[in-house]
Amino acid sequence: MILSDPAYGGTLRTTNGRLLRYDSIECMAAAVLTDSVPPRRIRAASVVEHEAAHRTLDAARAVYLYSPALQSPMGLGLSAHADSAQALRTRGLGEGLLLGWAQVLERVDLVWFQGRLDAAGHAKLPATKH
Known about the structure:
Largest sheet: 4 strands, antiparallel
Helix content: 10-25%
Number of strands: 7
Strand content: 15-25%
Mean pLDDT: 91
Number of helices: 3
Distance between the termini: 24 Å
Structural class: alpha+beta
């Protein structure tokens, strides 16, 4: 997949070694929520660090910023950050909420699936070993 904006995106590595790349955090979350990639089949999950697009973060440990001012590729305004301070710098004086992975799933479920999916049941991701 060609990523449309290098400051966004994510990757899932499955238990059989398959590498799945996503253009946005919300697309990766949707794949998990819809069981396109069931959580039990995920070996590792990482997201692109918004401020340093050449680096990735463990998706389970990243701090996410939801901000309507951000123009993420799929339009939900989600970005990933190494810590809360970094996310708050990105937000600046604008509006935005800091989220964890479970809250990202809830947001994607609410906006794209009208709250019909089991976000809580999909929230557990394996910690990536560095």
